Amino acid sequence: MPMRFGILGAVEVWDDDGEPISVGGPRVRALLAFLLLNAGKVVPPELLIDGLYGEEPPAGAANALQSQVSRLRRGLRGLAEVELLPAGYRLTAGRDEIDSQRFAALAESAGRESGERRAELLGEALELWRGAALADVPEARGQALRLEEARIAAQELRAETLMDLGRHAEVVAELRELVEAHPLRERLRALLMRSLYGSGRQAEALEAYERARRMLADELGADPSKELADVHLRILRAEPEPGPPVAPVGKGPGPRLPAQLTSFVGRDEELDRIEGLLGASRLVTLLGPGGAGKTRLSIEIGARLGGEVAFVDFAPLAAGSGQDLLAQAANTALGLREVGVLPAGQRAEPVERLTAALADRDLVLILDNCEHVVAEAAVFAGGLLTACDRLRVIATSREPLAVTGETLWPVRQLAVPPERAPFEEAAGAPAVRLFTDRAAAVRPGFAVTEDNLGAVVRICSSLDGQPLAIELAAARLRTLTAQEVADRLGDRFRLLSRGDRSKNPRHQTLRAVVEWSWGLLAEEEQVLSRRLTVFTGGFTAAAAETVCGADEDVLLDLADKSLIVRGADGRFRMLDTIAAFCAEKREETGEGKRLRDAHAAHFLAFVTEANDHMRTAEQIVWLDRLTAEHGNLSAALNWAAATDLELALRYVDMLSAYWWLRGNRSEGAAVANTLLAKLGGVPLPGFEEEYVACVANLALGSIPAPALPDMIRRSDTVLNTLGRALHQPFLLAMWALAAGPPDDYGDRMEEILEARHDQFAHEPWGLALMKLGIGFMNLFSSNDDDAESHLWQALAEFGALGERWGMTQTQDALATLFENTGDLERALALREEALVLIRELGTGADTAEMLMRRADILLLQDRTADARDGFRQAEEVARRSGSMGVLADVHRGLGDIALGEGDLAAAQDRYEQALEDCPPRWYSAELVARCHLGLARVARGRGDAEAARRHVGTAEAAVADYFFNKPIHDAAEEILAGLD
């Protein structure tokens, strides 16, 4: 009989082909879990309600239970029945159909067997587990713990059975993981000691006992149990344990590496690459800041290489230790003594002794923690490699050894998933996997879910994907939730202050890790490290020199020492944790305000320079440069907004084009709202243009602003009376979108154009914008010939400049013109061309809008399936970019499709949702009108002529205040004619 139901992990149901099927949401799965735990038994409704809702069930819980049972019956698709009996509910499922029942049966059978058969049955039972029992049913935690206890008991019995068969080495890794997950379970520790001892690793077995003794004393104030003490005594007496003989010290093949207590996560590709480097280079140095995982990576490489590998830790040595001390550490790690190295009666110095021992051996020597003895380590490694031609060396350090022939491998952060990554991708990212693995060790059953994924990703991202910091954070899940850990990372050094007591002190807390690196810096390096924390999101060498007075050599020294990281683009970045520490040091010096002022002044000059290139063929290059500095620009603007209103106003003016072109419109609206509040809604003398920029950004955002109409009227007067060229010519394009056409634009067109002409004298881009504006105004007035003539001229002039935004706006206007006149092929071609240019600009909001407009044409061409795909694409991009206006228009488009397919109810829902979501701005008028025309057609289809006429009236009124929209007017007349 196939297994159909699983609770040894998340609750699962499989069909006859073994494919998982969905039975419903969390409540339904929880109900199924409780019935599976009592399969074949009648479960009273009261127990199910208690299980599902706890001690305070909601009113109507009995009815809710009946609804959940109905959903479960549908979801099971006949694989089992949920019977209603007088005393309650019963699930009809056989023992072999449920993984927990099958596990219990196999474990019971194993208890009656011995030797290989017992091990085989227990292995089969344990393979049924897919993760923590009932992982997605927190309501069943008590039952989950019972199942987990049975699992651990089976694991213990299997390990003991394999050791009785002499197979100690097979269970070492598994027992280490189990001890890490259940540190107070002394039986597991006893089994681990036996497995190590039986594998020939007596010293590690004794170390495991010592760790257990210290942990029990520290945590419980107790001594080891008799079982643990007895195993310890047997090892000390060297009593026989089934297994291979213990290898003599200092001899024999195989790695001599520290045993690891945790699993290795996320660097498989790096292992392959570094293994390849060791084939071509005899010295490979793993570089990275403290906590990057260099030591663990070196150990994993050594274990993978096989053969003879030795691990030497230089961390206990004092800075400046000479060659003899380094060599003595290596001799101790290799188990070398003077006896047997040189003839009797002769005494060898440590370096000579080591060189003689390694002269003819194929050995990989791992030299760990070289940074504080880097000069001595370089001489030491170089001498050994010269004298021992079969030797290879892996070094770990925070800066290169600088030895001829050295190959460097920067140990980067574990990959953190991008924002809004799909669940499976995010949960599988190496940083998240490491956090999950370590968190489950301190909180059994912990797993990443849709609910906690955001907090876990935030933790991993805030900690730069650094393994040690992530492990320290995961350890706090012993008492905190993932969300609570994420919320406390602002004080990360206090939060992450409890680490593994058995580790070197400088790896026990996050602060100790960074302080170790800080103490190795020269004074001038410490000064620059403090100052560089003024940057946010990275910096260039030129910016560091201007703002911080950085000497290039010192800057590169910090990169060599892994205090900062240099990317492929040449930009430098300081890891957030190091930056937090150095920022504390900066504030202690009182340099903070001076540095922030210099930072803000530098980036205002930068964005002013960029502004001159934003209306040229260099537009994309400078947009990318501004995007690279986005963190610095935001930090400088926030500082200015808090300390210097005039500086902040200049920033808003200069950044307006960037915000608009790159779709960062909510950022511009938020800061504009803050500054306008400080201004009291009126211009600051001498900063009239900057005031208009604030009003434009606010009007184009989604922030409610009751005083906005007054500020728009005031800004319009400012623009018409400014009497000079604008510092930010792009502001006029934004203003046209923000304020909309004036009520009497037809009569005042020449006056308006004359005022704008003075502002655009000798400005080719501005003159092209004027032609675009004339084209739009003629389009609004249905003067199609004049509109087309001016739009083609504008397109040619924008094209000559290479300015993509102007080209896309003009192409869209021409497409609208041809759409209105029925030339759909030309309209579609223009929107396709515009879409290519918009994607080059990288503006999510504009991309979503053009996808939506393209879908409209496809629908007019009766390409319904393509149109639906287009609207869905627009919806996805709009959600990512936060473009509520486009989302509303997508609802309208999908409503049009539903209407065409005769689904009046779906069409009505879409139109009403669009009206609810569309922003209250003038440019929403056409969308409002089209939605009401759609609702009029729905009403007509239902025979409700009065409602249809009412919606038609609302549609025509919506656009009447701004322009004469012939397509809206024609559609209104067509609907009304159908009602007569």
From TrEMBL:
SMART domains: BTAD, Trans_reg_C. CDD domains: BTAD. InterPro entries: BTAD, OmpR/PhoB-type_DNA-bd, P-loop_NTPase, Sig_transdc_resp-reg_C-effctor, TPR-like_helical_dom_sf, WH-like_DNA-bd_sf. Residues 1-93 form the OmpR/PhoB-type domain. Keywords: DNA-binding. The keyword DNA damage does not apply. The keyword DNA-binding applies. Residues 1-93 bind DNA. It comes from the Bacteria. Transmembrane segments: none annotated. PROSITE patterns: OMPR_PHOB. PANTHER family: HTH-TYPE TRANSCRIPTIONAL REGULATOR RV0890C-RELATED (PTHR47691:SF3), REGULATOR-RELATED (PTHR47691). Belongs to the AfsR/DnrI/RedD regulatory family. This is BTAD domain-containing putative transcriptional regulator. It comes from Actinocorallia longicatena.
